[in-house]
Amino acid sequence: MRAVLMAGGSGTRLRPLTCDLPKPMVPVLNRPIAEHIINLLKRHQVTEVIATLHYLPDVMRDYFQDGSDFGVQMTYAVEEDQPLGTAGCVKNIADLLNETFIVISGDSITDFDLSAAIAFHKENNSKATLILTRVPNPIEFGVVITDSDEKIVRFLEKPSTSEIFSDTVNTGTYILEPEVLDYLPANEESDFSKDLFPLLLEKGDPIYGYVADGYWCDVGHLDAYRDAQYDGLQGKVKIDFAYEEQSSDLWVGQNTFIDPTAKIETPVLIGSNCRIGPRSRIEAGTVIGDNVNVGADADLKRPIILNGAIIGEEAHLRACVISRGTRVDRRAHILEGAVVGSLCNVGEEAQISPTVRVWPSKRIESGAILNMNLIWGEQAKRNLFGQQGVSGLANTDITPEFTVKLGAAYGSTLKLGASVTVSRDQRAISRMVSRSLIAGLMSTGIHIQNLEATAIPLARTMIPVLGVEGGIHVRLHPTRSDSILIEFFDNQGINISKAKEKKTEGTYFKEDLRRVPIPEIGTMAYPSQILEIYSKSFEKYLNVEAIRNSRSKVVIDYVYAVSGAILPVLLAKFGCDAVVLNASLSERALSTEEREGLLKQLGQVVEALKANLGVQVSANGEQLILVDEAGLPIRGEILTALMVHMMLTAQPRGTVVVPVHSSSAVEQIARRHDAKVIRTKANPTALMEASQENPNVVLGGSGEMGFIFPQLHPGFDAMFCIAKLIEMLTIQERSLVQIRSELPRVCHKTYTMRCPWTIKGALMRYLVETHPAENLELIDGVKIVHPQDDNWVLILPDAGEPLVHIFANSDDRDWVDESINDYRQRVQAFIDSEQGGSAIA
């Protein structure tokens, strides 16, 4: 006898599992559903199988091939153009069916006695026998009623609640005589339940219903998919397991290592080539595919994990489905009923809420909480905005689709008809992203002043000049060469406030986007004379004569960025002797190693030319590293102290603004000059706002972020900083080596350690509660200060990662080392105690 295996379904209700698999190839207990059906047929001596295919046909053909490895003979019939329906596809192969045959669905798990059903069919001389079963809720199935002779007298496909007249349903398995196919039209769509069986009833041909005993589960939706696996493990259905039973109710494949400290509560199935880490807990009902790694201390409560998945340390999986090749990072939580598609990446401490579905190849950001299905787009983010604007992998996270929507979300928060500037660096990826943003903005009725490729200092300068509502700048991320950074400015040119960021985020996530009619679509203009406008304000705040009369020789490395097209023009106006390196524009971002190589080269050129200083400009004109006349780099805390010292020498009794973690050398220098120090949160926006809001500020920023000259414009400006340095060195008649030797000797160190998102707040509270209030500064993080000297320790949670930074500062190196070690231990002990408490709870 031949069997027709109906395997053409796309399984819409099983998505995302069926996004890249046909429904019959979705695995149940590590074998495709279709393989379980073939094993059932084989048990009843049905070994010739014709599979009808439509959706992703090659997946099944590649797996079963000619069927010889599975003990059957497989042939395939593919519906190329359009699906012909359950009966139409069988009619299509009528020439292969010249004796009694069985039609069986490829998307159900069952152990029906097919031999008994076939015998029943033959005893009753039936033309068509439907294998039936009884279910408690027949609303999703075709309901059938039979008479006392088991003849079918009535049936109804998928009835409404009011139409249910029986609990006996059609299982989609039929035993048929070949002549019934003569009733069906060729090459037309037709269905057994809707077309053929009603026609047979009408003509009086005998149709019988065989009510089968045993297990049957139509794997039609995700809940049923999980239930079929649990039922299989509990022995409710007779199926052939893919692996040997290692001990009672524990099936394990070959070459699998289970750490002796792992706790397994049976029944559990674990595939071949797996690694189960120490102290992991695997509860009854868990199914683990082949080539799966489970990290230490993972907690698995009945998940279905498919082939090739990686489960990180301390991950918590609860009755969810993890598809093939997906990576779940440490301490992530995936809750009941959630389904994660193939090749996804779930970040550290991310949480996927119950019943949420994630389509294939998505990335869930560390710490993100995903409460809705993730179908389009590439990733789920905890927030759009990070410490500094919106950032992500170029053309992976930051795609044209994403940026159109981001532009529309930002535009929707502004008044209809408002204008904003859009600018970028010179790279093609930035051009693409800026154009997508422009399209989104214009769709909400926002007008664009397109500054095109220019340095950020120029973009900030133009915002108040043009009188626009704000601005957007797109560039490669200063520290990650594969990422894009998008910054949003207010009407002064300062990065927008947290409140405005939240408003844009809310609009984006709620999709509350404004769409305007054609007459109100935004327009675009291209302002001219940008460099001239910037140059005038540049000259206004410089002693141009001092620079002109300077005999300084300066070597400037532009690292192939857009500032290289601007600053040489400005310095040439002042007659400055500047040797320029790497000023041509490049599409490619340099790696850290390449940048360090150029810095070393810069030092050699400065020494060889006997120049007064060298400067490497980066971050699209915002940041710089100095090189003194000996060729040694000046950066970080030393650069901060040097700039503060020079500016306060030029303008004593001024105010400087620095981030909370800058070294106490700043206060020591300020005391020499009767000056004031203001410390801010460790983010660019806070520095810009404080530099604008406070009186008499002569300098803001730090060596890491760049320097702000508030009179010029509110942002960081490496180009003005270079000109100002030349001016001050000339007027003060000192060299960088001399100034460096005058700086206070302060030891300032930092240590970074992991800290889960969920513990950061409790850690800060613990530190506040365990230190005297008079010794605390809570500008950003928790800073423990010693009033009698400049010693302090700062514990600062990272804004974008599950990390915490410990800074220690003192004139005494030993005190710094001891303090960092002490607080490392304190923080780790608190994290351990919190995690222990949550595990107990």
From TrEMBL:
Keywords: Phosphoprotein
Gene Ontology MF term list: intramolecular phosphotransferase activity; structural constituent of carboxysome shell
One Gene Ontology CC term in the entry: carboxysome
InterPro entries: A-D-PHexomutase_a/b/a-I, A-D-PHexomutase_a/b/a-I/II/III, A-D-PHexomutase_a/b/a-II, A-D-PHexomutase_a/b/a-III, A-D-PHexomutase_C_sf, GMPPB_C, Mannose-1P_guanyltransferase, NTP_transferase_dom
Mannose-1-phosphate guanyltransferase C-terminal domain sequence ranges: 265-366
Gene Ontology BP annotations: carbohydrate metabolic process
SUPFAM superfamilies named among the record's database cross-references: Nucleotide-diphospho-sugar transferases, Phosphoglucomutase, C-terminal domain, Phosphoglucomutase, first 3 domains, Trimeric LpxA-like enzymes
Family: Belongs to the phosphohexose mutase family. Belongs to the transferase hexapeptide repeat family.
PANTHER family associated with the record: SUGAR-1-PHOSPHATE GUANYL TRANSFERASE
Protein name: Mannose-1-phosphate guanyltransferase
Organism for this UniProt entry: Lusitaniella coriacea LEGE 07157
Lineage: Bacteria, Bacillati, Cyanobacteriota, Cyanophyceae, Spirulinales
